[in-house]
Specification:
Blueprint (H helix, E strand, L loop, with lengths): L1 H35 L3 E11 L4 E12 L2 E6 L2 E5 L3 E6 L4 E6 L11 H5 L4 E9 L2 E8 L6 E9 L4 E9 L4 E11 L19 E4 L2
């Protein structure tokens, strides 16, 4: 009987390890594919959830990313970054805040969370429906803010369908990708802030 129990435990351990290796491989393939594009345009739904506080906010967002540069429109803000400087326009306050990019936080790029969860991680498939896999990823190095992320990926195409971030304050942030366009030809000044686009805004330089 004891030998049968030990054999069962060994088989379960092997199956768990195979699941982890498969999950990590799928996840890293999706991240590698994201990083391979010259640029990415996405339209997404953003949800912020805190069940205990009764918070459920949802809104649509738009973004274009190219290397360390990006342009985002979400929550009444336009955020433009050329990789070194960030301009944040707040429509309600009618002002533009200028700041240097914070290099200590992954450069502040929208893909920083996924890219940081690449090495020294644990991954497991928690749900699958055909080619679509839902993978839970945790950092072995520990993260003072984020508990874990769950990424839904089409394993056949290595495309990320949505990202679910759980922080340590019991907040959840869900990004559902509705439109995904890659490798567009963008103007040279696409990620440069133009004051003429915001003629009535107060410019506040925080650098």
């Amino acid at each position: 009987m004891k030998k049968h129990i030990l054999l069962t435990i060994s088989l379960l351990a092997l199956l768990f390890n195979a699941n982890a290796q498969k999950a990590e491989s799928i996840f890293k393939s999706a991240v590698d594919k994201l990083k391979s594009y010259d640029n990415i345009e996405i339209v997404f739904d953003y949800n912020m959830i805190n069940t205990e506080a009764g918070i459920y906010e949802t809104m649509e967002g738009f973004g274009v990313l190219q290397g360390d540069a990006y342009k985002l429109r979400i929550m009444g803000q336009d955020i433009i970054c050329d990789g070194n400087t960030t301009w944040t326009y707040n429509a309600d306050a009618e002002e533009v805040m200028i700041s240097d990019v914070d290099r200590t936080d992954g450069g502040g790029t929208p893909l920083a969370i996924i890219e940081e969860y690449y090495d020294n991680i644990t991954a497991k498939i928690i749900h699958e429906a055909g080619d679509v896999k839902k993978i839970e990823v945790k950092s072995l190095a520990g993260d003072e803010n984020i508990d874990r992320i769950i990424v839904t990926i089409n394993a056949k195409t290595s495309e990320i369908k949505n990202l679910h971030v759980f922080d340590k304050n019991k907040n959840e942030f869900v990004y559902v990708i509705n439109k995904f366009v890659t490798n567009q030809k963008l103007p040279a000044d696409f990620f440069t802030f133009k004051e003429s686009d915001y003629p009535d805004a107060e410019i506040i330089d925080m650098r």
